[in-house]
């Protein structure tokens, strides 16, 4: 591993190369640097090296880092979000990637309304159907999105998010990402009021190049920027 700056340079180069290979515009792909377990000094180093978006999966960690770093970077809530933790991030995150139920959407709606903000959200979909994976089935995604459109005016659906199985073959991973893109097109065709299908949040350190080839607009990358995570280290 190089320095954070060197790693970011490499990642951006690889994002560009994948975009080019897929005939896509590099500017249509947003890098979200996943900063979970990374201490704020190193997040700051990444900000100085040019990252514009950071992703956290624990709401309290996002909130704590926000108190220190504020709007120097845009914060994305990327992991499973429990309802009782929405309050920690509602006025700090610019996007929640992980709506998985109507009840979570309603909690976000309620909290956003109380702050008089609209919260950009993605619905997390489990394309592979693996039981261990978070996210809703494609059918559920459609019905949750219709429900939100009619009932949650402070929740703005901007697209979909998925995670590919960790140990899958390239073909399987590609099938998952392609499946998310197809679902997004299907939902888009329904022209649901207040719903946009412009973002596809997919691709991590091990599979972001495949994701970009399959249409990702947001890639969430941690390890390739910050190195292996140390979950035990006190931050
Ligand atoms: C940790 C995490 C990532 C980043 O994973 P890396 O393999 O370190 O790039 C992306 N998305 C989510 C939801 C995560 O929890």
TrEMBL record:
Report the domain of life of the source organism.
Answer: Bacteria
Question: Which keywords belong to this entry?
Answer: Pyridoxal phosphate
CDD domains xrefs: PLPDE_III_YBL036c_like (cd00635)
Please report the stretch or stretches of sequence annotated as the Alanine racemase N-terminal domain: 14-229
Location of N6-(pyridoxal phosphate)lysine modifications: 36
Keyword Oxidoreductase: yes or no?
no
* Protein's UniProt keywords contain Cytoplasm: no
Q: Name one GO molecular function term.
A: pyridoxal phosphate binding
* InterPro entries named in the record: Ala_racemase_N, PLP-binding_barrel, PyrdxlP_homeostasis
* Cofactor field: pyridoxal 5'-phosphate
Instruction: Indicate the family of this protein.
Output: Belongs to the pyridoxal phosphate-binding protein YggS/PROSC family.
The record's function comment reads: Pyridoxal 5'-phosphate (PLP)-binding protein, which is involved in PLP homeostasis.
NCBIfam families documented for this protein: YggS family pyridoxal phosphate-dependent enzyme
What's the name of the protein? Pyridoxal phosphate homeostasis protein
Q: Which organism is it from?
A: Peptacetobacter hominis
